[in-house]
């Protein structure tokens, strides 16, 4: 099973700031990685798939990069609605990382 | 717009079987891969398994011995059974659809989730 490790566990930022989230996989997954956003009491929402493709309806301030074992989700300028928990997920075994909480500083 | 809705008992006794159903509306259940994912209170997401529209299934190895997935295309439903449940199976259970119709990959449509508590 491929293990996904997300860092940091918590990111404390202010609206308007840039958020950089990391996901490392235990072995290469190529470009087959997705990112999800989850708000309290809601189901996760697909944000990025295949490392860098924005899902339908996702604003351009969200971008993904990386390949192999190191991936990054960047939110260029945080909006109030972006504060949430973000999970990465790899396509081969469908496993998820432990999540990064982006909270208001 | 595709919509998924989970249904089933919210309380299950230890050692018994947890059974949930997901009903698909607004789209076809044919093609695509249909998954169950759970989230224990305050914790992260765990993929449980998927079933295709043909009925072939694949499971998370950590749960494979206790889990069965099935599909009923005529009623646009797919189901989850977890045998011999313990308190560790207490979670919010989500059903979800794969983004690709050709292979299981990412999850683009999700149900709202249903809370299942294992307790006597």
How much of the sequence lies in strands of chain B comes to over 45%
Determine Rg of chain B (CA atoms, Å). Answer: 13 Å
Number of helices of chain B: 0
Secondary structure: number of strands of chain A: 10
Q: What is the makeup of the main sheet of chain B?
A: 7 strands, mixed
Shape of chain A: globular
Biggest sheet descriptor of chain A: 6 strands, mixed
Content-based structural category of chain A: mainly beta
- The portion of residues forming beta strands of chain A comes to over 45%
Number of strands of chain B: 11
**Portion of residues within helices of chain A:** under 10%
Number of helices of chain A: 0
Silhouette of chain B: globular
Written overview of the protein:
The complex is a heterodimer of chains A (105) and B (120). Chain A has 105 residues and is an all-beta fold. Chain A is 0% helix and 49% strand. Chain A contains no helices and ten strands. In chain A, the strands form two sheets. A six-stranded mixed beta sheet of chain A has the order 2-10-9-4-5-6, with no helix packed on it. In chain A, strands 1-3-8-7 form a four-stranded antiparallel beta sheet, with no helix packed on it. Chain A is globular, with a radius of gyration of 13 Å. With 120 residues, chain B is mostly beta strands. In chain B, 0% of the residues lie in helices and 51% in strands. Chain B has no helices and eleven strands. Chain B has strands spanning 3-7, 11-12, 18-25, 33-39, 46-52, 57-59, 67-72, 77-82, 91-98, 107-110, 114-118. In chain B, strands 2, 4, 5, 6, 9, 10 and 11 form a seven-stranded mixed beta sheet that branches. A four-stranded antiparallel beta sheet of chain B has the order 1-3-8-7, with no helix packed on it. In chain B, a hairpin with a 4-residue loop joins β5 and β6 (57-59). The N and C termini of chain B lie far apart (39 Å). The relative contact order of chain B is 0.31. Classes of the chains: A mainly beta (105), B mainly beta (120). The A-B interface holds A 1, 32, 34, 36, 42-46, 49, 55-56, 87, 89, 91, 94-99 and B 35, 44-47, 50, 60-61, 94, 96, 99, 104-108, 110-113.
């Amino acid at each position: 099973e491929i293990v996904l490790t997300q860092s940091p566990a918590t990111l404390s930022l202010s609206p308007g700031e840039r958020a950089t989230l990391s996901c490392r996989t235990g072995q290469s997954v190529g470009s087959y990685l997705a990112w999800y956003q989850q708000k309290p009491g809601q189901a996760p929402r697909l944000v990025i798939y295949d490392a860098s493709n924005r899902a339908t309806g996702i604003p351009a301030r969200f971008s993904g990069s990386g390949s192999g074992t190191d991936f990054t989700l960047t939110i260029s300028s945080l909006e109030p609605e972006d504060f949430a928990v973000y999970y990465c997920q790899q396509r081969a075994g469908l496993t998820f990382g432990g999540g990064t909480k982006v909270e208001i500083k | 717009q595709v919509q998924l809705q989970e249904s089933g008992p919210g309380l299950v006794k230890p050692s018994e079987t947890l059974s949930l159903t997901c009903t698909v509306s607004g789209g076809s259940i044919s093609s695509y891969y249909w998954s169950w994912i759970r989230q224990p209170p305050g914790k992260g997401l765990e993929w449980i398994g998927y079933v295709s529209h043909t009925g072939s299934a694949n499971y998370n190895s950590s749960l494979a011995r206790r889990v069965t997935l099935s599909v009923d295309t005529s009623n646009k439903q797919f189901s989850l059974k977890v045998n011999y449940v313990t308190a560790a199976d207490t979670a919010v259970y989500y059903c979800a659809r794969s983004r690709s119709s050709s292979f299981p990959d990412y999850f683009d449509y999700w149900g709202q989730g249903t809370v299942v508590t294992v307790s006597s």
